[in-house]
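Practice problem: Biopolymer transporter ExbB
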Amino acid sequence: MLAFFQENKELLEEAASQEKTLSIYKLIMDGGLGGQIIIAILFVLLAVALYIYFERFFAIKAASKVDKNFMNQIRDLVLDGKLDAAKALCENASTPTARLIEKGVSRIGKPLEDINTAIENAGKLEVYKLERNVSVLATIAGAAPMIGFLGTVIGMIVAIHEIANSGGQIDIKMLSDGLYTAMTTTVAGLIVGIIAYITYNHLVVRTDKVVYQMEAKSVEFLDLLNEPV
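Answer key — structure tokens:
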């Protein structure tokens, strides 16, 4: 008798676990064609967002690496009149800050205002390079939830259509496709939007740090040119 109860208990627990298990794949498949299209669009947006984030993250990380002795070396070379060596040092560094300093070194001998203008123009170009495609993340952060809500509206329309055609007898199974579409697309849209929003803000913060670094080194270089010989 005890073995019988234990066997039934195991069967009940297994059945309960199967009932509680909710397959994401099954939710998507049961959501109808409209829900599947919305989910596919959101999946593509997520892939694009992650690609842009990691590509920009490593690019910005590389751009932020500047040798602590870089400006000291530039200072010594400029004061010694070794401008070609200073340019070569900047080229070897290959960072946004180094390219700004190289632009300034190449303008030595001209009025300080012209040097400052050349550095500012070069800085705008470097900032544009750092921010390339980052705005796409902001677009995805705003568009993904709206696309998810579009799926919600489509799902509710399907559910209402089923109710209208049910002849007054509502069957929950009849409404399942529309409800699945409504819920899964909303969740998917919010998840993609949140990920894109977080990654966008993280890149903005990292970019601002590099821009600040560029500005600080540019000011240091201009101060160097103002030092009395």
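Discussion: The chain has two domains: 30-63+135-214, 70-130. Students who identified this feature from the tokens alone can consider the problem solved.
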